[in-house]
Amino acid sequence: MRAKVEQHGISLQAIAGTYVVLLGWSMTKQDSKNILGFAVHRMDKTENEAYWLEGMKVFKETDPGTHKASLRQHPVQGFTWSDFTAKPGHNYIYRIVALKGTPTDLQEDADVSVEVTTEVGANGTQ
Predict the structure, then answer these.
(1) CB 81 within 8 A of CB 49
(2) Core vs surface per residue 67-82: b (16+ CB within 10 A) or e
(3) What is the DSSP string of 61-109?
(4) Is the predicted pLDDT of residue 126 greater than 70, yes or no?
(5) For 10-67, what is each residue's pLDDT tens digit?
(6) pLDDT by residue (tens digit) across 56-114?
(7) Rounded Cα distance, 69 and 87, in Å
(8) Cα dist. 117→3, 14, 57, 66, 93 in Å?
(9) Which listed residue, 98, 101, 102, 122, has the most CB atoms within 10 A of its CB?
(10) Is the pLDDT of residue 124 over 70?
């Protein structure tokens, strides 16, 4: 499944397979001024759970000393993210949030959300 949305100055495209959802977004240079990175929040409507996804790159000032850290405290400093924890046949809402401020005081700025459903591997359409 593919979906594309534009909200609050962010354009977001999602491509959902069976076990992976690829996310890519963009902002104009002007809109992205002072952005430190992007947090990725996932709501699984199928299992009724929601949380910030995790990454491995962190800010030096706030390094938790673990192998993984919440993207809300340690945002992606790029314009793509792949969710390799997706499950077949699940309905997800992904929210991308631009973060400004400092590593010790991140403030939410623009955001955009997209809803996708992952493929069911056993239905014979792949």
Answers:
(1) no
(2) eebbbbbbbbeebebe
(3) GG--SSS-EETTTS-BSSSEEEETT--TT-EEEEEEEEEEEETTEEEEE
(4) no
(5) 999 999 999 999 999 999 999 999 999 999 999 999 999 999 999 888 887 887 787 7
(6) 888 878 877 877 888 999 999 999 999 999 999 999 999 999 999 999 999 999 999 99
(7) 21
(8) 10, 10, 28, 31, 9
(9) 98
(10) no
Buried b (16+ CB within 10 A) or exposed e, 32-63: beebbbbbbbbbbeeeeeeebbbbeebbeeee
- Report residue 119 as tokens: 């493929």
**Residue type (1 letter), 33:** K
Q: For residues 99 and 27, what is the distance between their CA atoms, to the nearest angstrom?
A: 13
Query: 0.70 exceeded by the pTM?
Result: yes
- Residue type (1 letter), 96: I
Q: Tell which residue, 44, 38, 50, 37, has the closest CA to residue 21.
A: 44
**Both tokens of residue 124?**
């014979």
Strand order in the sheet with 10-16: 2-7, 10-16, 21-27, 80-83
